[in-house]
């Protein structure tokens, strides 16, 4: 009986391909800020890229269909006063985007369905709770309106963006937090930190439930993500500065499930995980290649599949959710590679001869509906994502307005004063308008009208004018009365 030497997998022949030039996005000034972020966020409707801007932070939001050259005057989202460090689309509403910045704030934005015609500077809500720059922002995978932020003050704060309130604050990290990832149902999240520890945290208990010192022995930054099975996939460096990946069981951190050395490049490996295919795509900043692996229950557990290579190094990367891929072309993933001045979509495809829907490639995937409300999650409820079928392709739902109950943080924000240029002067009587514009003349005008106006309007008593106050308010009321008599 012969035994097969080659491992059987439907993803063994996945190949990557760059789209045609006219299907890319040109003339995008990608941010040059020194921060290990992807600088890019994707959903089935929009492409968002952090860009260079003067006088604060900004990012560009384009409809996915708006390919080609981007006008240099295309409107930006410009609410932050410092450089933007991270952005993330809400998994439950394709028009809601969260951003964080060096200005110590996070902001939530409502993006209209059509192309922007003017800059957006007013966020739906501003989240102020960090004392230093905010470098990480990530949405809860199943609960509505739950957002997590982490800053250089070593704090992790979980917000309810529907009220603008900080629900949970954790200060268990003694140093800078490199990355945060929720598990599939959002009951836990894992973090990597500059103190070289990998931690698993229960936010509702406000405690670290498991931790591992130096999953990778090098001192360079690490990254960690949860897999659908509850394991943790990590990337880091060895003591000899070789890049390395690992797979860990959070219930037993003593020994790794798998540990694999890669190469000696300097760029931090950013992992992008496809839960439906159980595949991981590794993209290093400054690299010109994308490696992809399949995670299975068979040794060696992390199987190398292939490498996509191109000529130019990448500045950042975006990863399309599964509901945004093209099922008619057997596309299982789409990445958006950021270069110096453009963005190139890269499609990952399984070669199949049939044009029919491939059930084995497209199991039901996480849809846009939240499984529970913020209050239910806070009370201890856990739910897996609500799944939708990919058969026939995915149609994004209509835009829904994010409603914020204005209290606490929102009520404390100062109201905007109306300038004279925006005042509706047509609603003021002429004498009141004159007094409003020339308040310094109020005293002399009072004495003038006290003697001249009785001659003009003999029906009015002189005592009415002599008893008038010289204050601006009383004078304006007097002129309004005279205007009505006239």
From TrEMBL:
UniProt WD repeat ranges: 77-119, 127-169
InterPro entries: Coronin, DUF1899, WD40/YVTN_repeat-like_dom_sf, WD40_repeat_CS, WD40_repeat_dom_sf, WD40_rpt
TM regions (residue ranges): 428-449, 455-475
Highest taxon above the source species: Eukaryota
Keyword list, A-Z: Coiled coil, Membrane, Repeat, Transmembrane, Transmembrane helix, WD repeat
Stated family: Belongs to the WD repeat coronin family.
Name of protein: Coronin
Annotated organism of origin: Dicentrarchus labrax
Organism lineage: Eukaryota, Metazoa, Chordata, Craniata, Vertebrata
């Amino acid at each position: 009986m012969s035994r097969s030497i080659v491992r059987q997998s439907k993803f063994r022949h996945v190949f990557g391909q760059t789209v045609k030039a006219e299907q890319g996005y040109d003339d995008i000034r990608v941010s040059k800020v020194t921060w290990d972020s992807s600088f890019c966020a994707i959903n089935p409707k929009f492409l968002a890229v952090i860009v260079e801007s003067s006088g604060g932070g900004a990012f560009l939001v384009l409809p996915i269909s708006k390919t080609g050259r981007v006008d240099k005057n295309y409107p930006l989202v410009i609410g932050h006063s410092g450089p933007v460090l991270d952005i993330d689309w809400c998994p439950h509403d394709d028009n809601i985007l969260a951003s964080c910045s060096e200005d110590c704030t996070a902001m939530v934005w409502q993006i209209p369905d059509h192309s922007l015609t003017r800059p957006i500077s007013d966020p739906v809500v501003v989240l102020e709770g960090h004392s230093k720059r905010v470098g990480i922002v990530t949405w809860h995978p199943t609960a509505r309106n739950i957002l997590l932020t982490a800053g250089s003050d070593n704090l992790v704060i979980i917000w309810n963006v529907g009220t603008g309130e900080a629900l949970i604050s954790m200060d268990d990290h003694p140093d800078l937090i490199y990355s945060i990832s929720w598990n599939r149902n959002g009951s836990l999240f894992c973090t990597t930190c500059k103190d070289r520890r990998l931690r698993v945290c229960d936010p509702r208990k406000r405690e670290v439930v498991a931790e591992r010192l130096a999953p990778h022995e090098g001192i360079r930054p690490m990254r960690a993500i949860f897999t659908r099975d509850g394991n943790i996939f990590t990337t880091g460096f060895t003591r000899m500065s070789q890049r390395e990946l690992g797979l860990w069981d959070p219930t037993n951190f003593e020994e790794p499930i798998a540990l694999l050395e890669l190469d000696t490049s300097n760029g931090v490996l950013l992992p992008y995980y496809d839960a439906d295919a159980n595949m991981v795509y590794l993209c290093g900043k400054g690299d010109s290649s994308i490696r992809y692996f399949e995670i299975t229950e068979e040794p060696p557990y992390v199987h190398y599949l292939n490498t996509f290579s191109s000529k130019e190094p990448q500045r950042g990367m975006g990863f399309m959710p599964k509901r945004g891929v093209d099922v008619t072309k057997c596309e299982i993933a789409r990445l958006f590679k950021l270069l110096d001045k453009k963005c190139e979509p890269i499609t990952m495809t399984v070669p199949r001869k049939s044009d029919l829907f491939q059930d084995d490639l497209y199991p039901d995937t996480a849809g846009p509906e939240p499984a529970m409300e913020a209050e239910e999650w806070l009370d201890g409820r856990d739910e897996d994502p609500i799944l939708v079928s990919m058969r026939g392709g995915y149609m994004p739902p209509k835009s829904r307005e994010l409603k914020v109950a204005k209290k606490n943080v929102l009520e404390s924000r100062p109201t905007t004063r109306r300038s004279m240029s925006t005042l509706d002067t047509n609603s003021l009587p002429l004498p009141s308008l004159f007094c409003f514009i020339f308040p310094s003349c109020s005293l002399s005008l009072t004495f003038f009208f006290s003697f001249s106006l009785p001659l003009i309007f003999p029906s009015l008593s002189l005592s009415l004018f002599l008893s008038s106050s010289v204050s601006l308010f009383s004078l304006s009321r007097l002129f309004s009365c005279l205007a009505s008599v006239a």
